[in-house]
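dumping this here before i forget
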Amino acid sequence: MAAVTEELDRRVRLRLYQRFAEEGRPPTYRHLAEDLDLDPAAVAHAFRRLAEGRVIVLEPGTLDVWMANPFSARPTGFRVDAGERWWWGTCAWDAPGILAMLGVDGIVRT
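structure:
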């Protein structure tokens, strides 16, 4: 059972990061469940486990993703621009990490 849970969490985490990178904001657990053709309750549990493991940070009292380092869903003082796309970095260290993670050149504005 643990291996199944770990695989689910891995799939959810990977797709969460992909969508965050593509769209500049995180998907909801329901959208991610639809995206992965999974039960929304299973993805909600995965979000909770990922938050408990400090992989992601949820908005207090919700299942909405606030941070999936290096990305922030909320505006911060660290905007990362690459071409026509941009993201919020969680801090001064994570902002350039977005560029490295995505393998693109860009500018970090503080």
